Amino acid sequence: MVEFPKSLSPKRFLKLLQAEKNPHSALALLDSASRHPNYNHSPDVFHHILRRLLDPKLVAHVDRVVELIRTQKCKCPEDVALTVIKAYAKNSMPDKALAVFQQMEEIFGCAPGIRSYNSLLNAFIESNQWERAEKFFAYFETVGLSPNLQTYNILIKISCKKKQFEKAKALLSWMWEKGLKPDV
């Protein structure tokens, strides 16, 4: 177990985490600091450790970091929640991504924005769940959310993966007419 100074700040702890190159050792540091009296992690600490857990061999640890965020009632910006959703998307775990999306306010203290919607839409695509992706996109309108360029790029990706090239081409033409410049 690591010996921390009596007064440990999240800023100082983040520097220790950043210096630790081994992700398993970084997780052990996180666990040790979590037991340190009068210390709570900051959103920056959580964001840093979560970005290191995107690898398929490490994604299993995301759940316990999310639980730590929940128990510490750490108010985090959308970027922290996005990192979790993207970790699950990258590892074909769309149901876990959906659960996090649905509980963002409860867990992270922030509401999902367009980037969260796009990340979940992409999670369905990455796991070849086209129908769920299309239903989720239809849900955008019911919550009054306007799709952005990234949303349309994802929709083009869906069409191409489904080998619906005419649909992708039509969407590209529509985007050009609306002044949007696709970057897929």
Automatic annotation (TrEMBL):
InterPro entries named in the record: PPR_rpt, TPR-like_helical_dom_sf
UniProt keywords, alphabetically: Repeat
Taxonomy, superkingdom: Eukaryota
Ranges occupied by PPR repeats: 113-147, 148-182
Ranges in coiled-coil conformation: none
Family under the similarity heading: Belongs to the PPR family. P subfamily.
Protein name: Pentatricopeptide repeat-containing protein
Lineage: Eukaryota, Viridiplantae, Streptophyta, Embryophyta, Tracheophyta
